[in-house]
């Protein structure tokens, strides 16, 4: 049966995966996601690959080297983490995946997530808008301070005010600035200040500390109460790098409590008013420009990111990591096969080793050596006995034996043995040998 195509535009698999990836990346913004890490792999290229799962599902995650370098923790299997990621597709396999850009431990990350969620709700309600923020009064006669009466913040503020505005009256509304009940006490202090309506401006804050120490100033109820203040509020929480929800909602944020005291001092008021006007004008102009160009910029940015060579490079890097991991597994399998073959050959070599045969032959050789030694000794005993007999017979006819029996041998001057007295003449010297030693004698007379 012939199939007639109504549309000649036939997709390839590569084209389909590429366009699906572009659609996902353009349609979905970056998201925060929390889950448990599993199947974590750190590739040789420096990229991280793992799955993020909960009780009902899981999704693959890739975190490339340029992003995981800034991660506060190195994920471990079973660890709960919080990630900020983009949705994408790994084209070679058609796998839907997340490209992580930020990764935090779920413990500290949960506080940051709660901070961002509170900030988003306040922003949606317009409580962070610059239009609602008020400048400080031109002349502050009575200043309210909400902080701990024993902390360093109150001492710093009073020191600056004593130097810059000694005539200013200060009213302290004491409150805890750390701990579980701190946010509730801060709200009570604010309510008291609103009810009494006796100050021209308020400073709320404390000295520096950790994120947990400053967390009471991120309370949403406190932020909404600050937004209802009938007088301008200066928020001075922590150090310059610390930013809290109270800082964002207050009319003015001061980097430190001492800086807040300088802001409310009279000799800085005109400059601060001008700076605030310029700031509001600049923020408004920037907001208008952003509102005008933001949609188009976002669209172009998404298209650029989708077609940027870095995205293709990331795809290729991920594919290279897959090939590298596959090659590593194949090499391990090949090494295991070779090790098994080597063990088999070692076993066969031990079975065919000549050591056992040599041991058996050595055991057979030992009795033969003993028998040979015994035969050689028996063979030598017969010549030895015969030799001893000949020695005995030779000894019986030896002149040395005759000498040993008391006889002697005499020689003339030419060493000729003397056997007849007629061979000698009176006065002739005769050499005589005994069994032990010899002597020389002179002939006196001879007897036939």
TrEMBL record:
Pfam families recorded: Exonuc_VII_L, tRNA_anti_2
Keyword presence, RNA-binding: no
Catalyzed chemical reaction(s): Exonucleolytic cleavage in either 5'- to 3'- or 3'- to 5'-direction to yield nucleoside 5'-phosphates
Keyword terms: Coiled coil, Cytoplasm, Exonuclease, Hydrolase, Nuclease
Domain of life: Bacteria
Catalytic EC class: hydrolase
Xref: InterPro entries: Exonuc_VII_L, Exonuc_VII_lsu_C, OB-fold_nuc-bd_dom
Residues forming coiled coils: 328-378
Assembly notes: Heterooligomer composed of large and small subunits.
Role, per record: Bidirectionally degrades single-stranded DNA into large acid-insoluble oligonucleotides, which are then degraded further into small acid-soluble oligonucleotides.
Name of the protein: Exodeoxyribonuclease 7 large subunit
Native organism taxonomy: Bacteria, Pseudomonadati, Pseudomonadota, Gammaproteobacteria, Alkalimonas
């Amino acid at each position: 049966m012939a199939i007639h195509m109504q549309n000649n535009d036939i997709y390839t698999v590569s084209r389909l995966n590429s366009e699906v990836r572009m659609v996902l990346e353009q349609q979905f913004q970056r998201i925060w996601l929390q889950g448990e890490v599993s199947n974590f792999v750190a590739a040789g290229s420096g990229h991280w690959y793992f799955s993020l799962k909960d009780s009902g599902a899981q999704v693959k995650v890739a975190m490339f080297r340029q992003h995981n370098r800034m991660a506060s923790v190195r994920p471990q299997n079973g660890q709960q983490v919080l990630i900020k990621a983009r949705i994408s597709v790994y084209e070679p396999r058609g796998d839907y995946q997340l490209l992580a850009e930020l990764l935090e431990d779920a413990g500290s990350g949960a506080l940051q997530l709660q901070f961002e969620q509170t900030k988003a709700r306040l922003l949606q309600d317009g409580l962070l808008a610059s239009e609602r923020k008020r400048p400080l009064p031109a002349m502050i006669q009575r200043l309210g301070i909400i902080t701990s009466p024993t902390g360093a913040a109150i001492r710093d503020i009073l020191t600056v005010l004593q130097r810059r505005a000694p005539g200013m009256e200060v009213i302290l509304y004491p409150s805890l600035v750390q701990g579980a009940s701190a946010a509730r006490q801060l709200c009570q202090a604010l309510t008291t200040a609103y009810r009494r309506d006796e100050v021209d401006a308020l400073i709320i804050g404390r000295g520096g500390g950790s994120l947990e120490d400053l967390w009471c100033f991120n309370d949403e109820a406190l932020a909404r109460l600050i937004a209802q203040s009938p007088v301008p509020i200066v928020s001075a929480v922590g150090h310059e790098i610390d930013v809290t929800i109270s800082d964002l909602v207050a009319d003015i944020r001061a980097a430190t409590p001492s800086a807040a005291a300088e802001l409310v001092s009279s000799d800085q008021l005109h400059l601060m008013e001008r700076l605030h006007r310029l700031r509001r004008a600049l923020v408004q102009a920037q907001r208008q420009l952003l509102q005008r160009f933001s949609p188009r910029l976002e669209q172009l940015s998404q298209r650029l990111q989708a077609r940027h060579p870095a995205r293709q490079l990331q795809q290729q890097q991920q594919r290279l990591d897959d090939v590298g991991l596959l090659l590593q597994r194949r090499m391990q399998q090949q090494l295991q096969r070779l090790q098994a073959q080597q063990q088999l050959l070692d076993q066969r070599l031990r079975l065919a080793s000549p050591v056992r045969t040599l041991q058996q032959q050595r055991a057979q050789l030992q009795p033969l050596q003993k028998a040979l030694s015994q035969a050689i000794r028996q063979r030598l005993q017969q010549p030895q006995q015969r030799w001893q007999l000949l020695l005995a017979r030779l000894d019986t006819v030896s002149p040395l034996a005759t000498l040993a029996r008391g006889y002697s041998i005499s020689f003339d001057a030419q060493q000729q043995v003397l056997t007849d007295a007629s061979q000698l003449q009176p006065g002739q010297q005769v050499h005589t040998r005994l069994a032990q030693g010899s002597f020389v004698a002179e002939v006196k007379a001879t007897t036939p």
